[in-house]
Design a protein that fits this description.
alpha/beta; globular; binds ligand AR6; 40% helix; Leucine Aminopeptidase, subunit E, domain 1
């Protein structure tokens, strides 16, 4: 595990399963229809139970889902986390379709929503790097730079932000990017 302090918020990188995290909110790598799916999304709905899908359905009915780069919030159902922030990362199409900015926006929107709700601790997965095939190194640079900028602009806003990386390989990539200063 690696941790650094950025403007009063602890930023941690660790290997693990996002659904096990004891933080106020975990972030889901969702799709625009909030339909549930594989990867992080499947694990969150399995562990959190039907309340999360019911709230996603309501959001879908009220506002048509969640556009790429934006975020919505539900309760955490049976999860240890009280809330799930559902954000939608871009599908990788080679890097010239605005993917970098959309990925940054997914992180920024999630952080902004957490800030508005007074949430103090949150955990991110590596958004877009599974089913959506975003290259991990490039995603890690965007993820860490976006979080760092947000924390620097909002000193002491959270007690902790953690990245929960599913494999040792992805953790190693994030750690290297952090140590190299992005
Ligand atoms: N905890 C932490 N990380 C995980 C977990 C877990 N339990 N499971 C997978 N990962 P993905 P995306 C890692 O595919 O690329 C879904 O079907 C995984 O190794 O979950 O944004 C949605 O409904 C990878 O590094 O999300 C969407 O349709 C990272 O989490 C679509 O997939 C993200 O992989 C979203 O694709």
């Amino acid at each position: 595990m690696t941790e650094v302090n950025i403007a009063g918020t602890l930023l941690k990188l660790l290997q693990g399963d996002i659904v096990e995290q004891e933080v106020e909110a975990i972030v889901n790598a969702a799709n625009t229809g909030l339909w549930g799916g594989s990867g992080v999304d499947g694990a969150i709905h399995r562990a959190g139970g039907p309340a999360i899908a019911a709230e996603c359905r309501r959001i879908r009915e009220e506002q048509g889902g969640c556009p790429v780069g934006q975020a919505v919030i539900t309760s955490g159902g049976f999860l240890k986390a009280r809330y799930v922030i559902h954000t939608v990362g871009p599908i990788w199409h080679g890097g010239r379709k605005g993917e970098d900015e959309l990925l940054a926006s997914a992180y920024r929107s999630s952080l902004q929503l957490a800030k508005e709700r007074g949430i103090k601790s949150l955990a991110f997965p590596s958004i877009s790097t599974g089913a959506y095939r975003f290259p991990v190194g490039r995603a890690a640079r965007i993820a860490l730079a976006t979080v760092k900028d947000f924390l620097a602009a909002n000193p002491g806003i959270f007690t902790e932000v953690r990245f929960v990386l599913f494999s040792q390989e992805i953790l190693n990539t994030y750690t290297r990017v952090l140590e190299e200063g992005f």
